[in-house]
Structures are given as structure tokens and as C-alpha cells.
Design goal:
It is a single chain. By secondary structure, the chain is mainly β. The chain has a domain of 102 residues: Neuraminidase, CATH 2.120.10. It is 5% helix and 52% strand. The chain contains one helix and 26 strands. The longest helix is centred in the N-terminal third of the chain and has 15 residues. The radius of gyration is 19 Å and the shape is globular. About 4% of the residues have low confidence.
Length: 304
């Protein structure tokens, strides 16, 4: 069966299976050219106009224009693809750059202006890996000692409160303005994959305490909702989470599907795809990008 026929079959099945579901698939497509570049870890620009793509080990960043299918190499920096940040209008990208000196790892934070391709270092190389986020027209960089603010962009919406969520010493930490608070909603233990909702009202994270489950809590670390096992969770609007439900034999991944959940825990559902193993989704309110079979796929969805 050809890929086009397989995708068409999946669409037919999805229309039959998810009639009662809240997230419906309207189209599935392979992004042209991505099957030749071995991309991973897609990230949407907030305006939905392009994706950032990187390698399996987060080296380099490539911009993929979703209107023209044009690919532009932005940087070859080591670790640049690990949680890059994009200004609301898509004009500025902030990323990490890792270098080794005397067998020691140092991480700096840099920005690139996509209009003039100018690269700036906004946080000099250090032994720590600081979390960062756009807040208004500034990038706030969080460390245990202070918040460093650098003005970078003019295409950012105005927000009243700045939140940065991070994992520090395996704990879930929230920076609110200049205040650092250890949340750990599920008690002491290990936390991974945290992020703040677009409306800045909730945090999603995975807790490794007493199993591996994904939770959503409020900005105080309270009112936790257990969504079950959803790996690499990302926000799909403000009310939905999407991630992977993967299975392995201890050595390799055997299967992995897309799983979506309402943040109140009232509904979870599989998002049908033509692939046996789907990895590392990114999402907006009406689209999901993921990696499978050596290419990047784009799903258009409707949320009821």
C-alpha cells in the first residue's frame, strides 16, 4: 500500500472511530523534504507559520516554513534544539549553545533574529543550564540566584506576570517574577517535561513518583489532576494535552501512539495516525506535528 493510500485509509478510519471524540483528525500529511534530513523534536512558532526542527540529540536548528515548505538552517549549535523559545510573532528564536573546555560542559544562551540573521549571546557560558522564557518583549533567564532580563523583540504580546517553570535537582520549580518556589506537587521525587499553558493558568508535568504519570496543576502547584501515562506532553491550546503512549521491551520502542487528554481528566483519546511509532509531538490548537518513519508529519485537527 502506498503512503497516500495508507494516509487516506487512516482518515476514513479516524472519521468512523472518533465520531464521539472531542479531537477529530481532518488531514494527515508528510512535510516535503523532511524524509531526507533525519529531523526530530519539532516546535511550533506561536503564530503557526513555521516549525523548528533539530536532530535526535538536539544539535542545530532548522526553520521549516509551513506555507512554502522551505527549510532554512539557523544554527549548528550543540543543544540548540532543546526547548528553544520563539517570540509571538516568530521573528526571534532563543536557544542554547553547548561547548566543552577541559572536558567540562558550558552552556550559553543565544538569540537569532530571523529577519537579519543576527546572532547575539544573551547569557554567557556557564556550568549551569538555565531555564528561560519570553515575557513581554524580554527574555527572562532563571537561575537560583536571580532573574536576568534582556529585551530582544517587539512582536510579543504584553503579559502581566512572568512565569518560568524548570526542573532543578529533579524538583519542579516555578519562577514568578523574581521569586523562586519549589512546587513538587506530588512530593519529593523526580519530575520531567514541565511547561506552562498558553494562558498561564496551569502547569503540565510528568511525575516519576509511584509510577510515571502526567499531571496538570494550577500555578500554586495545587489541584493536581492525574492524566495517566502521557510521555513528552505538550499543550494543545489551553484545555488539552497531547503526547506519546509508547511501549518498549527495555531496549527499543515497540509502539508509540498519540494520546490526547482534557486537563480536567474527563476524557482521553488516541489520535489516529498512519504510523506504528510516532515520537515527540508538538501542537497548537488546530495542528499536531510529530516524527515517524524518518519524516515529520503534520496533522490538522478540530477540537469540539
Amino acid at each position: 500500500m502506498t503512503m497516500k493510500k495508507l494516509i487516506f485509509s487512516v482518515l476514513l478510519v479516524s472519521m468512523q472511530v472518533v465520531v464521539l471524540a472531542q479531537v477529530s483528525v481532518t488531514s494527515v500529511s508528510v512535510l516535503p523534504g523532511t524524509d531526507k534530513a533525519d529531523f526530530y523534536h519539532p516546535a511550533f512558532a506561536a503564530n503557526g507559520e513555521y516549525l523548528l526542527l533539530t536532530s535526535v540529540d538536539f544539535q542545530g536548528l532548522t526553520k521549516y516554513d509551513l506555507k512554502t515548505n522551505e527549510m532554512t538552517k539557523l544554527t549548528d549549535a550543540v543543544n540548540a534544539g532543546y526547548a528553544p523559545q520563539i517570540s509571538d510573532g516568530g521573528k526571534v528564536v532563543v536557544f542554547r549553545d553547548v561547548e566543552y573546555k577541559n572536558n567540562r560542559r558550558y552552556t550559553s544562551i543565544k538569540s537569532i533574529n530571523l529577519e537579519n540573521r543576527q546572532v547575539k549571546t544573551i547569557d554567557k557560558a556557564s556550568r549551569e543550564m538555565h531555564a528561560f522564557a519570553f515575557v513581554g518583549g524580554k527574555v527572562n533567564i532563571a537561575s537560583k540566584e536571580q532573574i536576568i532580563s534582556k529585551r530582544l523583540a517587539t512582536d510579543i504580546r504584553t503579559v502581566n506576570t512572568s512565569y518560568i517553570v524548570a526542573i532543578e535537582d529533579q524538583s519542579l520549580v516555578l519562577y514568578t517574577n523574581n521569586v523562586r518556589k519549589v512546587l513538587n506537587p506530588n512530593g519529593n521525587g523526580s519530575y520531567i517535561w514541565p511547561s506552562v499553558s498558553p494562558d498561564q493558568k496551569h502547569i503540565v508535568y510528568m511525575s516519576l513518583n509511584k509510577g510515571c504519570n502526567t499531571y496538570v496543576c494550577d500555578m500554586e502547584g495545587k489541584n493536581c489532576v492525574n492524566l495517566g501515562y502521557i510521555a513528552a506532553p505538550v499543550w494543545m491550546g489551553n484545555n488539552w494535552i497531547v503526547g506519546m503512549e509508547d511501549k518498549d521491551d527495555g531496549h527499543q520502542t515497540l509502539s508509540s501512539t498519540l494520546k490526547a487528554a482534557r486537563i480536567d481528566g474527563s476524557l482521553t483519546q488516541e489520535i489516529p495516525t498512519p504510523n506504528k511509532i510516532v515520537m515527540y509531538p508538538a501542537a497548537t490548537e488546530n495542528a499536531i506535528a510529530y516524527v515517524a518513519d524518518g519524516a515529520v508529519y503534520l496533522i490538522k485537527v478540530e477540537i469540539r
